[in-house]
Amino acid sequence: RTDELLTTAAFRGETERVRQMLAHGAHTAKGQAKTTALHWAVSMGHLEVAELLVEHRADLNSRAVDGESPLHVAAREGDAALVNYLLEAGANPSLCNNGGATALDLALSFADEEVEMIQSLRV
């Protein structure tokens, strides 16, 4: 139950609540679909929450059901600040998701979509 509350607080970016829960022994382990609080914080762009979770030994290379690590999620979301932070913290950039894609593959895919969208929007 506490882990679910931690995951929800991470998803919502509730930094102080996450800090309090971690101080009282909440675990950063996997929740539903093997997704961790770190996955959720990263998916929502909550850098400060991600930093707190990593400081409390969240697994940087944990894999969700789809094989994605938090680094995959940050790359897919195009969040350069989180990608850089996770790499500096020790995330493994060589991990592949279930589709065989690394975080770099996802980042390149995201970049291609951005370029295509920008080109489409040019008048």
UniProtKB/TrEMBL annotation:
A single BP term in Gene Ontology: protein K6-linked ubiquitination
SMART domains per record: ANK (SM00248)
UniProt keyword annotations, A-Z: ANK repeat, Repeat
GO molecular function, one term: ubiquitin-protein transferase activity
Keyword Repeat attached: yes
Mapped ANK repeat ranges: 33-65, 66-98
InterPro entries: Ankyrin_rpt (IPR002110), Ankyrin_rpt-contain_sf (IPR036770)
Pfam families listed in its UniProt record: Ank_4 (PF13637)
PANTHER family linked to this entry: ANKYRIN REPEAT DOMAIN-CONTAINING PROTEIN 39-RELATED, BRCA1-ASSOCIATED RING DOMAIN PROTEIN 1
The protein, known as: Uncharacterized protein
